[in-house]
């Protein structure tokens, strides 16, 4: 590439970060790092009416959890700051004035009431060439009237003047040539009455001043492309414009329409990267992190939503993703969200992760479940026994809580249908015989002892394993029963068998 690659993610701090937004970050980040470039985080906070306290910090925290650290941002600084648009307000006014001087923009003095009245008169009203002469602006008014209104500091906005007839053409890295007839585009507001720019002006000016070489965003922004291309043409020249790519949508699981927060609530899965607590409604939306996802798995899964490297490979480290990433391999069509597949990725990453690291990550989950961990080495051993059964970090609680305390309930209903006197006698004998065993026998020794005793009682070991499992863990789950006995040790094992026999005798 000719110049150093510089890409940006420019969210508005209005709430939680949807996984579609994180995927946009990821594709920007992978592209930049693949080409030895820089990834910039810019906060687009010009719409103060939509600003939500805490949202900017949430975005920074999310990127930090994902390991997608910006090279430049409001937090990290950089040579092209400030990185909050609200702190760049003075910059945009001069560019809006330049557009007016060149005849590419105009002042509009219409009040909100004027606009509302016009919308009542004209169905689907657009402020465009069809109606601009009917409105109160510097095109429809005489020059002296405009001067007078400006002298009086009459509230006004600045709008782009969309040409009457022009076709805008650009090349999208993913979609190829894209054409727009601008006759259907309205005269967007560029500078609001409070002097703040709209997204349309700010994104173009900032991309120019921050030397952005590639701009990647969701395909929902495609309708805005004609306005942005015209602004590039009018202000800086199209040769200075970044190369563009509009990323496909992440679709609902059923495949129709964009995945939304409501879909997650309806179907019981997260759509935000991390928990988001709305300061206004006080509602908390659960995130992938708190649901029990590893950041590596979350990133791996997101990368495969709409991209692949041309092989059947699915598990990638971030370094492998950076090496393999090619934007031209991003699919044009939307990618269907599949929560079960997301959990599969997480399970694969849990298997890959060192048990000592998992112990660190799991500590908050055990704390939340009020499970006391007395020895880290014991936790690490338990993790090794159950990790293959866990899709989420939260699964470790159900899959291992019985290693740390006797189960609160025993599923006797699963034992009773095939329960008989012979089995009662066997388990009584087993608990008594375990009292005679010395030291801390290993799983293999325990299994041999169990099978020998079963033969003495003329019962198949297979008919006794399920009741034993339920007595130890409370239900039909968990790793090998003899691994469990070896871990919880004999006194605990005996106590659980005796307790279960008492419950069964009461039924």
What is the gyration radius calculated from CA atoms? 32 Å
The profile of the biggest β sheet is: 3 strands, antiparallel
Q: Identify the CATH architecture of the largest domain.
A: Alpha-Beta Complex
Task: Give the termini separation.
Answer: 77 Å
- Structural class, by secondary structure, is mainly alpha
Query: Which topology of the largest domain does CATH recognise?
Result: Glutamyl-tRNA Synthetase, domain 3
Describe this structure in words.
With 507 residues, the protein is mostly helical. The protein folds into four domains: 88-247, Glutamyl-tRNA Synthetase, domain 3; 261-353, Glutamyl-tRNA Synthetase, domain 2, CATH 1.10.1160.10; 354-399, Glutamate-tRNA synthetase, class I, anticodon-binding domain 1 (Helicase, Ruva Protein, domain 3); 406-507, Orthogonal Bundle (Arc Repressor Mutant, subunit A). The protein is 44% helix and 10% strand. The protein has 20 helices and 13 strands. The chain has helices at residues 19-34, 55-66, 89-101, 112-121, 143-151, 199-209, 225-235, 261-267, 288-291, 295-303, 318-324, 339-352, 355-368, 376-386, 395-400, 421-436, 443-456, 461-473, 481-488, 490-505, and strands at residues 6-9, 38-41, 105-108, 157-160, 167-172, 176-181, 189-191, 214-218, 243-247, 250-251, 276-277, 284-285, 335-336. The strands form six sheets. A three-stranded antiparallel β-sheet has the order 3-4-7. Strands 1-2 form a two-stranded parallel ribbon. Helix 1 links the parallel strand 1 and strand 2. Helix 1 (19-34) crosses helix 11 and helix 16 runs antiparallel to helix 20 (490-505). It is elongated. The termini are far apart.
């Amino acid at each position: 590439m000719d110049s150093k690659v510089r890409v940006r993610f420019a969210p508005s701090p209005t709430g939680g970060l949807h996984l579609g937004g994180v995927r946009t970050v990821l594709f920007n980040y992978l592209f930049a790092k693949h080409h030895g470039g820089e990834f910039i985080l810019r906060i687009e906070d010009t719409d103060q009416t939509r600003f939500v306290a805490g949202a900017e910090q949430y975005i920074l925290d999310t990127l930090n959890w994902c390991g997608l650290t910006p090279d430049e941002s409001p937090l990290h600084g950089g040579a092209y700051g400030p990185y909050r648009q609200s702190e760049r307000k003075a910059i945009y006014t001069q560019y809006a004035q330049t557009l007016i001087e060149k005849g590419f923009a105009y002042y509009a003095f219409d009040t909100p009431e004027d606009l509302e009245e016009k919308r009542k008169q004209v169905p689907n009203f657009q402020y465009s060439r069809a109606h601009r002469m009917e409105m109160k602006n510097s095109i429809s008014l005489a020059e002296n009237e405009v001067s007078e209104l400006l002298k009086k500091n009459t509230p006004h906005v600045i709008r782009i003047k969309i040409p009457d007839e022009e076709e805008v053409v650009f090349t999208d890295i993913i979609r190829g040539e894209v054409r727009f007839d601008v006759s259907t585009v309205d005269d967007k507001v560029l500078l609001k009455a409070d002097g703040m720019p709209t997204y349309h002006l700010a994104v173009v000016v900032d991309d120019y001043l921050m030397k952005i070489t590639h701009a990647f965003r969701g395909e929902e922004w495609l309708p805005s492309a004609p306005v942005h291309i015209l602004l590039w043409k009018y202000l800086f020249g199209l040769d200075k414009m970044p190369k563009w790519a509009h990323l496909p949508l992440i679709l609902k699981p059923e495949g129709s329409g964009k995945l939304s927060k409501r879909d997650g609530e309806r179907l019981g899965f997260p759509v935000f990267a991390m928990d988001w607590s709305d300061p206004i409604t006080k509602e908390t939306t659960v995130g992938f992190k708190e649901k029990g996802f590893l950041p590596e798995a979350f990133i791996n899964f997101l990368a495969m939503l709409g991209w692949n490297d041309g092989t059947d490979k699915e598990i990638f480290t971030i370094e492998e993703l950076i090496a393999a990433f090619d934007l031209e391999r991003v699919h044009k069509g939307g990618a269907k969200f599949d929560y079960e597949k997301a959990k599969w990725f997480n399970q694969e990453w849990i298997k890959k992760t060192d048990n000592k690291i998992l112990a660190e990550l799991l500590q908050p989950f055990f704390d939340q479940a009020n499970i006391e961990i007395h020895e880290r080495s014991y936790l690490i051993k338990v993790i090794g026994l159950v990790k293959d059964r866990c899709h989420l970090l939260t699964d470790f609680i159900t899959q291992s809580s019985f290693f740390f305390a006797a189960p609160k309930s025993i599923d006797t209903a699963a034992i009773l249908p095939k329960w008989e006197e012979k089995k009662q006698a066997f388990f009584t004998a087993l608990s008594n015989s375990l009292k005679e065993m010395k030291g801390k026998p290993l799983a293999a020794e325990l299994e041999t002892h169990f099978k020998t005793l079963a033969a003495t009682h003329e019962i198949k070991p297979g008919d006794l394993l399920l009741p034993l499992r339920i007595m130890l863990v409370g239900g039909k789950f968990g790793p090998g029963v003899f691994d469990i006995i070896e871990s919880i040790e004999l006194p605990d094992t005996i106590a659980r068998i005796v307790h279960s026999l008492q419950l069964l005798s009461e039924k």
